[in-house]
Amino acid sequence: xxxxxxxxxxxxxxxxxxxxxxxxASVIVAASLxxxxxxxxxxxxMAAGPRLAPPSGxxxxxxxxxxxxxxSRVLVGxxxxxxxxxxxxxxxxxxxxxxxxxxxxxARIVQVTLLRLIDVLYSFPDTLIALALVAFLxxxxxxxxxxxxxxxxxxxxxxxxxxxxxxxxxxxxEAARLAGxxxxxxxxxxxxxxxxxxxxxxxxxxxxxxxxxAAGLSFLxxxxxxxxxxxxxxxxxxxxxxxxxxWILIFPGVAxxxxxxxxxxxxxxxxxxVDPRRKGRS
Amino acid sequence: xxxxxxxxxxxxxxxxxxxxxxxxxxIHVVPGDPVTAMMAQSVSATPEAMAEMRTRLGLxxxxxxxxxxxxxxxxxxxxxxxxRGNESVLRLLMQRVPNTFALAVSGLGLALAxxxxxxxxxxxxxxxxxxxxxxxxxxxxxxxxAFWLGLIMIQVFALKLDWLPVAGSSWRNIILPxxxxxxxxxxxxxxxxxxxxVDVLEEDYIRTARAKGLRGHEVxxxxxxxxxxxxxxTVVGLVFAYLLGGQVIIENVFSWNGIGRLAxxxxxxxxxxxxxxxxxxxxxxxxxxxMLIDILYNFLDxxxxxx
Lengths: 282, 307
Hints:
Chain A is mainly alpha-helical.
């Protein structure tokens, strides 16, 4: 199944959810990339305004307990969250992909062992795997990113195995094998180009869960550390001013929701295109 | 049938063994020396105390011996003692299990009570406005971080409206955290219900029931709902695992005295035996629940019952 022919159906009438998701995602990505130019204040500068000031013309989202500008903090926080998300997804996809391919193209005993192990890990929520890993790795942005990447590995390994196993069963692979092509070359030249697009689509599905995990870890004090303006970390400190300054809770939370929502909207529609089991069932 | 059940029990046991081994190995993930990392916050970090800790945790043995030792200790019900206070990890965890269980069950109950009717509504009106609306709410639901929803609930229902307490020990304290979990995970349930019912509605026997002149609601309630509910039972285990994972953060938001709050405290204090104990208890709960659900499914589904 080729994804390009499927997308050409969209050219006539793309689903509203995809348009909404793509629109939201482009605004969020653009705002995060340009955050240092767009932010009116240095996100870590104390006393940029009065302490715990409500939203106003000077401070669009208000200020926090140190008088830092919340709008600037949320903008720059987007850069951190998206950065963690992208690094975690790329590393998780590479590691998981290699494990999945190894499982699909190795001896039965290796295959069964790997799949069973992946299944055990897959039955646990990814946020919890990230939490357990970070507890031992220690807090901090690099360790949190690594932990989230590893927490995504079971999902990506399973997806890659599924796609590669379906490809392996096709006649052209048989033909290539008969022509004497070894496993390594088979995977590189024949399998990867055919499952690559689907893998990238599945990559977007892990992205929203990575952002949620990052926010959760930082909220508990195990991820990005203050004064870095990560969204979960801002929420953790805003929690103490829940009554006096609810805006510290509202804006970073809305930012997380919109980011995760946009990638979920895109990912869900794309998944229907590449996942054979879910085809025609949107 | 007996064969199926015993096979399922064996798989569950093997899963627990694998998780115990992995959790035992986790201490080697610590960058540098785990004992130094653990005792960094302690005043009494003398070389003697550190050497004693190393022996206590068995870190002076080869890795394979450590893993086997840990496995045999855990299987004998010994999860070790906490670094600070030297208390039994198992006892501390078990004290909190009833609280965690009460919250998980009420959260799951709410998630099912809200999610199943929503998914049903969507599947019956497939492709129409109600379906689109429910599915949009479901995407929204999986996009809202549970801990943020919890904070908003505290702000609105406890502080603004003053309907419910933020913290305390009366039965009213379970309402807000349970509602937070229920609202977060009902989205997952609604999606699964919808796709299960959509599958059933495409079956031949539904067409037959319609063809023999049964009315719409009779077909739905008598012929479609039961098989759909049976396949929903199989995913309840998965929802339970995710809910229990989300609950770790929620317990901290609402200061609920469950194992999640204990675990995060241990994570911040680097109390490794406590964290490992938490992982084992968590895994055992998830594995037992999903095993019981699989066995229950075998009894519910008439096709499986005959085997």
